[in-house]
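Case study 2.
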Amino acid sequence: MPNRTPFMSDTDLGRYLRAHLANEVEWLLRATAEWHVQKTLHLCEPGYEVEVFARDSAMLHARTLFEFFTQETGDNYYGCDVFHVSPQPSPNYKTDWKDPLHAKVMHAQDRSQTRPLKSFDGSGTKPLDEMPLDFAHEVVRLWRAFSAALAAHPDPPIARLGQEADAILSQAIQHAGAVLGSALAVAHGKQISPITW
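Prediction:
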């Protein structure tokens, strides 16, 4: 069986951050923004259920990043400890979101009885299918904590990755903002409320 989590040098870590983690946060935030647009427009066009595509994409990328930020490296996936920082705490993910999100993304289980999940801000509960913004907000919070941990690291090559991680997140937020002002959203004449990250 191949080793799916080989040791990474500082150079490898930089490549992993730029190529893989950046891809995950970029498409998580864009998919979440598109889901938000589609929920606002409420087009309900048969054969054009972009809301579902965006929701499922957001959940997939969120799950990947939750796994990376909150768990140590295992045989099949990297955790943020590969960057020599501790896994980040996420009580919402660990105690409330993990099992339903895993079942939704990874398994064809009966989802008809899925319990409501706690919202990111703790203001209430929502069905799993209404959670993309909540998941994305928590991932952004975890990303910022990860960036800060990298920046505080005593090893200068690791510390420099903290600045790079900040820049990656800023760019992903900017690109998600462009989704909110897309031609499609404007063409339907509805005001799309901004997302504050």
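The first strand starts at residue 117 and ends at 118.
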